[in-house]
């Protein structure tokens, strides 16, 4: 069962939410209830849930700020937002930060909540699949490097750095990388640049060129084969990017 934190300051809404669906039917179990974002954040610092369902407007830390701070801390658990029609612009902010969806409190229906639970479970199952493929235990943060391997103070940025460094030979898009860490694309771009000093595109090119240098110096593979192995779309693009970074074409670099 995946664990759920409910964050809602109105007792009536909280009670209705708790009894709206059979949580176990969708693969979830209620783990904690909190009346504010501050309380929920303190709990998450000690032990994270797999899913957070939170009201947006609450005393103290609101739901959007809870989501924002969770992402800045590198926690990638899915968020479902509870909102009123008059708060819709806050829901939009939450979606931009990577929330998987929202529920209108004034017309809260079991089928709407159930559909979002299905979506959340799908993302969590993908998370678990990624962990198994990469040999990561369930107790660790998703894909987080060990303390010795961390490059920044943001676990999810470190995870992206590690993933790009290991999978540079594959097609890497902003969309796929954002999905990997369960964040919105614009937010991923901004936080990656802030923490590493590189855009994602710039960092990916850097890793690929460094790999190409190793291939040029350590193998006799033709330029076209190295281009393909290092993830470049075609030979012309490889030559252009390589020269931009090294000042030489791959052929001239190998000769020198």
UniProtKB/TrEMBL annotation:
What would be an example GO MF term here? DNA-binding transcription factor activity
* SUPFAM superfamilies named among the record's database cross-references: CheY-like, Homeodomain-like
Q: Where is the Response regulatory domain?
A: 3-120
Matches recorded under Pfam families:
HTH_18, Response_reg
Q: Does the keyword Translocase apply?
A: no
Per UniProt, residues of the HTH araC/xylS-type domain are: 158-256
Q: Which UniProt keywords apply?
A: DNA-binding, Phosphoprotein, Transcription, Transcription regulation
By its UniProt entry, which PROSITE patterns does this protein fall under?
A: HTH_ARAC_FAMILY_1, HTH_ARAC_FAMILY_2, RESPONSE_REGULATORY
Q: Which GO BP terms sit in this record?
A: phosphorelay signal transduction system
What domain of life?
Bacteria
Q: Which InterPro entries match?
A: CheY-like_superfamily (IPR011006), Homeodomain-like_sf (IPR009057), HTH_AraC (IPR018060), HTH_AraC-typ_CS (IPR018062), Sig_transdc_resp-reg_receiver (IPR001789), Tscrpt_reg_AraC-type_HTH (IPR020449)
Is Transcription among this UniProt entry's keywords? yes
> Which PANTHER family does the record cross-reference, listed alphabetically?
ARAC-FAMILY TRANSCRIPTIONAL REGULATOR, HTH-TYPE TRANSCRIPTIONAL REGULATOR EXSA
Q: What is the designated name of this protein?
A: DNA-binding response regulator
């Amino acid at each position: 069962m995946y664990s759920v934190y409910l964050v809602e300051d109105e007792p009536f809404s909280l009670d209705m939410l708790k009894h709206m669906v059979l949580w176990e039917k969708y693969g979830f179990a209620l783990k904690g209830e909190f009346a504010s974002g501050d309380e929920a954040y303190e709990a998450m610092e000690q032990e994270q849930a797999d899913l957070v369902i939170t009201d947006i407007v609450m005393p103290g830390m609101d739901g959007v700020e809870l989501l924002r701070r969770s992402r800045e801390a590198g926690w990638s658990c899915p968020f479902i937002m509870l909102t009123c029609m008059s708060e819709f612009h806050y829901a939009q902010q939450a979606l931009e930060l990577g929330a998987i969806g929202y529920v209108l409190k004034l017309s809260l229906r079991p089928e709407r909540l159930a559909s979002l639970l299905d979506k959340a479970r799908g993302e969590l199952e993908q998370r678990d699949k990624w962990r198994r493929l990469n040999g990561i235990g369930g107790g660790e943060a998703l894909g987080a490097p060990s303390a010795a391997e961390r490059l920044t103070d943001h676990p999810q940025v470190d995870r992206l750095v590690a993933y790009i460094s290991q999978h540079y030979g594959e097609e890497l898009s902003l969309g796929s990388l954002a999905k990997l860490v369960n964040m919105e694309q614009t937010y991923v771009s901004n936080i990656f640049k802030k923490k590493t000093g590189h855009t994602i595109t710039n960092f990916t090119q850097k890793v690929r060129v460094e790999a190409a240098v190793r291939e040029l110096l350590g193998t006799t593979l033709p330029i076209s084969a190295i281009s393909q192995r290092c993830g470049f779309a075609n030979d012309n693009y490889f030559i252009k990017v390589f020269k931009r970074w090294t000042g030489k074409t791959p052929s001239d670099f190998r000769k020198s």
